[in-house]
Amino acid sequence: MKKHHNLLRDHQDRILGNWLQATTDTSTRINQLMSRDELQRMCSQFLQKLQQGLEQAGAPDLQRDGFAGLREFVQHLATDFAERGVSPSETASYIFSLKQVLFPFYQDDLDSKHLAGASWEINNLIDQVGLFSFESFSLARERIIKSQGQALAELSTPVIQVWEGIVALPLVGTIDSIRAKEIMEKLLESVIQYQADIVIMDITGVPIVDTQVANRLMRTVESVRLLGTRSIITGINPAIAQTLVQLGVDLGQLNTKASLRAGLKQAFRELKLTVRPAKGSQ
Prior knowledge:
InterPro entries: Bact_StressResp_Reg (IPR051932), RsbRD_N_dom (IPR025751), STAS_dom (IPR002645), STAS_dom_sf (IPR036513). It holds the Pfam family RsbRD_N. Helix 2 (12-25) runs antiparallel to helix 6 (88-109) and helix 4 (36-57) packs antiparallel against helix 5. The chain has helices spanning 4-10, 12-25, 29-33, 36-57, 68-84, 88-109, 112-156, 177-194, 211-226, 238-247, 260-270; strands spanning 160-163, 166-172, 198-205, 230-234, 256-257. The protein has 282 residues and is an alpha/beta fold. The longest helix is centred in the middle third of the chain and has 45 residues, at 112-156. The protein starts with a helix and ends in a 12-residue tail after the last helix.
């Protein structure tokens, strides 16, 4: 019986052409995101890795060492698709479509005695590759989501050095227990990094300030104080002030200001700094 890799090698140009045509005829995002040259290069490399694997592994089993090159290629392919927004089902369907492309060539080259067995072997191998691509895609998506989560966490606690000895932390959005922990850790790191004397925490963008949020702010202020740094809470508007009074939250120990501007002026006064217009600017 003709070996799989020999069959792929003997018809490589026609198989590539038919698979490329089958891929471009579908309406998946793969076609929308990749040019025909990119698709041709991808299909060609895939077939090359598949043929090499079949020749080196000795059997159509994806777990064999001979298929290491194909597994690595599929991992890169799945990662690239995940980053481009292609779905896992589209990724797997692209690979599964090769079965339909290959079958006519097996029909032409093999007699009826060997056709069924050879077709089952190559289809089973392509199924393994398709499932492997699904697993690789899932791992890639997890890495992307984790990376995006870390980026969002960084953006949600932007500590800014606004002046020598003064850092500001403008808070936006809901503060739950997990985020409160991140805020405290990031703020304490920044206090040490910038050798800050004063921290301004602006809560203008925090939609709800209740007992829990106030307690978390006070714990953060107390932790900052232990490092020898003073804190100013800004952004407490009349509505928030009334809410805190109704809740019985005692902010008497905190230095509070209505606006970030007022907080910055207070910080300048405490550090005995003065900002004056430059000469000739008036």
